[in-house]
Amino acid sequence: MSRYRGPRFKKIRRLGVLPGLTKKRPRLGSDRRKTFRSTKRSQYRRRLQQKQKLRFHYGITERQLLKYVRIARKAKGSTGQVLLQLLEMRLDNILFRLGMAPTIPGARQLVNHRHILVNNRIVDIPSYRCKPQDIIMLRDEKKSKNLIQKSLDSSPRKKLPNHLTLDRLPRYKGLVKQIIDRRSVGLKINELVVIEYYSRQT
């Protein structure tokens, strides 16, 4: 299973803010284990932490992330930028960025339970790669609408990234306008360090 089921605050304290994993924030001062050693990080540790940050934010396994890195290496353009585009264009992440789910695990559950249509077809694969002009909608069921409405009501309304639009009426409908650009990525990450981490495996 790619879904992380362990303590989420533990990962946030270690890796930093992971908006895709949980919308909660740890209390200030909850991590008192700051020592001199923590300031002198080795290059390997820094790469490992950035890789883990990417994994836990998007909720993917080590094998999945390695697969995405290999695809990005074969594509044209910057490997790091292509890697982030591949992850950001996953259906579960698109739902999260649209605000239709509070977290990426929550978005994955919506997809797995067949609540989501892409171009009027049910898609139950969270890793489905969305493309420009894809239309993402809810199934026309009361239960589906209630789930989305609960998420939208419980979360503060955020500005959508430039590559997405969302219409709430008459049905929740999201549109992927274009491939995401680097500035709109929803995670503070040094993707080049992640590529360096996998340099011997690709």
From TrEMBL:
UniProt KW keywords:
Plastid, Ribonucleoprotein, Ribosomal protein, RNA-binding, rRNA-binding
Q: Where is this region: Disordered?
A: 23-44
Q: Name one GO molecular function term.
A: structural constituent of ribosome
Major localization listed first in the record, in broad terms: plastid
Regions of compositional bias (Basic residues) in chain numbering: 34-44
Q: Which Pfam families match?
A: Ribosomal_S4, S4
Q: Name one GO cellular component term.
A: plastid
Q: Which residues form the Small ribosomal subunit protein uS4 N-terminal domain?
A: 3-88
Please name the NCBIfam families in this protein's record.
PRK05327.1, rpsD_bact
According to its UniProt record, which protein family does this protein belong to? Belongs to the universal ribosomal protein uS4 family.
The name under which this protein is listed is: Small ribosomal subunit protein uS4c
Q: Which organism is it from?
A: Drosera erythrorhiza
